Amino acid sequence: MAVLRTLVCLAATTMLIQLAMAANITVGGANGGWDSSTDLQTWVASQKFSVGDNLIFQYTPNHDVLEVTKADYDSCQTSNPIQTYTGGNTAIPLSAPGKRYFICGTLGHCQQGMQIEIDTLATATPPATSPSTSPPPKTSPSPAESPESAPGTPSSSPDVPSTQSPGNSPPASGLSPTSPPSSANRNSFQTCLTLVFGLMLMVLFAL
């Protein structure tokens, strides 16, 4: 009985983690949509799709959504779709990695640009950030030791002020600029909350 409860708790925790990491991605973005006036190819190129995400199509009654093969995608062939979606608000889960192809089935709309190729990644990959390198600390060379001067000559040579190019001087604050929090940080926060709920659920089942 204890083993069964443990398995149920693990399954519930896994589901909560997947829900926390999943994202609803609206086709066309906030300022566009599933229509011929939106530059869908540019929008797709700016996105990252991961397993667990939901692809949201929002469109007017004169459009629909067809999932097709690669060959039908390339030729804008609408007669043999894998799946047809209508209704104006369609959510398609991206449940497996790989490429999927969507076009509009209305005559001529695919040729006008209403087609997208979705490449789903196996896991979410946070955007790469280059490590910030701070310039080396400014050091002033110590004046060279001069030998004992002969009579009638100055006892020491004058110090030569060190010069440093402005480009190598560290920032005035001494700190490298910080980058704004990325979406990966938000996903990590959601995942932590989900793990906390999962642990609470495991404790409840154990009682």
- Residues in helices, as a percent range: 25-40%
In DSSP terms (H or I, runs of 4 or more residues), the helix count works out at 4
Spatial separation of the terminal alpha carbons: 12 Å
Spans of 5+ residues with little confidence (pLDDT < 50)? 11-20, 145-157, 160-186
The main sheet comes to: 5 strands, mixed
Order of helices and strands: HEHEEEHEEEEH
- In the sheet with the most strands, the strands line up as 2-8-7-4-5
- Please provide the count of β strands: 8
Strand content: 15-25%
Overall pLDDT confidence: 74
Shape: extended
Overall structural class, as computed from helix and strand content, comes to alpha/beta
Q: What is the CA-atom radius of gyration, in angstroms? A: 31 Å
Explained architecture:
A five-stranded mixed beta sheet has the order 2-8-7-4-5. It has a three-stranded mixed beta sheet with strand order 1-3-6, with no helix packed on it. The protein has 207 residues and is of the alpha/beta class. The radius of gyration is 31 Å and the shape is extended. The chain has helices at 2-21, 40-45, 70-75, 183-206, and strands at residues 24-26, 49-50, 54-58, 65-68, 83-85, 89-93, 98-103, 115-121. Helix 1 (2-21) runs antiparallel to helix 4.
Quick summary:
Helix content is 27%, strand content 17%.
Reconstruct the topology from this structure.
Layout: H1 2-21, E1 24-26, H2 40-45, E2 49-50, E3 54-58, E4 65-68, H3 70-75, E5 83-85, E6 89-93, E7 98-103, E8 115-121, H4 183-206
Parallel strand pairs: 1-3, 2-8
Antiparallel strand pairs: 3-6, 4-5, 4-7, 7-8
